[in-house]
Amino acid sequence: MRIGVFAYNFKHKKTQEGLLWLMLHGYKIECILAADPVQLNFYQSKIRVSQKDMEYMHPSEIAKKLEIPYHVVAHNSKECEELVKEYDLDVGVILGARIIKENIINQFKTGILNMHPGLLPENRGLDTIKWAILKDMKQGVSCHLISREIDRGRLLIRKEINVFEDDTLLDIFLRIQNTEQVLMIESLRMLEKGERGETVQEGNYSKSVPPEIEKNLTGKFETYKKNYSRI
User: Strands across the sheet with 198-199, in order?
Assistant: First the structure.
């Protein structure tokens, strides 16, 4: 199975860890397709769930050390289409990307694998950790082959994670990221066996949590943790 990786062309935790997980589990990466940063135009929530001021290697440095061809390319461009064809890729793995369009999806023989930090289909979209808390939903990860509709496509596997009463938001974030890497490998093994999963139903899509709702998150979080086993 010939694998290409979608990444960001800047230092990024998920990109770094995902590349290492793939290599350590015996998957050869044919190429890395790395996109430059773009300006985001949606509201970004104020309560932080991820760590900051952490040092990672630039993906181009990782690629050089692991001898993986590295291309800086806009992910939805004609150039990217041609690279997918050139490397004759079966599967794309998203370790850093914005919305990938149908013209790119269709170039892969099997499809493009995404690890979504929420349970599909009920928790599609942005700020999934926060929306799960605010709406009393389980936290978890879903791996799916993407389609032109956001967080839809073919669901391969999903897994709920534990939440403990002494957890912080960062604990949940890190647990989800770790689960993403574990399920990425499980999903690739499923694809190797010819499994393609089931269609992701429409479910519920959410944008980033607006400030008037986010202000309730801290208080809600304590109750959520206590009641998590009963959700």
Answer: 70-72, 29-35, 3-8, 91-94, 111-116, 140-145, 154-160, 198-199
Mean pLDDT of 158-184: 98
How deeply is 29 buried, as exposed, middle or buried, from its count of CB atoms within 10 A (0-12, 13-18, 19+)? buried
pTM exceeding the 0.85 threshold for the entire prediction: yes
54 burial level (CB within 10 Å; 0-12, 13-18, 19+):
exposed
Q: What is the domain range of residue 69? A: 3-230
Give the confidence band of 188 by pLDDT, cuts at 50, 70, 90.
Answer: very high
> Average pLDDT for residues 127-142, to the nearest whole number?
98
**Coil vs helix vs strand at 182:** helix
Distance between CA atoms of residues 93 and 6, nearest Å: 6
Mean pLDDT of 213-223: 96
Query: Amino acid letter at 175?
Result: R
Q: Which two tokens stand for residue 165?
A: 């009463």
Q: Looking at residue 40, what is its pLDDT?
A: 74
Number of domains forming the structure of the chain = 1
Measuring CA to CA, which residue among 15, 110, 146 is closest to residue 70? 15
Using CA atoms in the order 110, 111, 112, 115, what is the torsion angle rounded to 10 degrees?
-80
Tell me the β-bridge partners of 105: none
- Say which CATH number the domain at 73 has: 3.40.50.170
Kindly state the DSSP code that residue 131 receives in the 8-state scheme: H
**Could you give the C-alpha distances from 163 to 122, 148, 181, 217, in angstroms and in order?**
18, 32, 18, 16
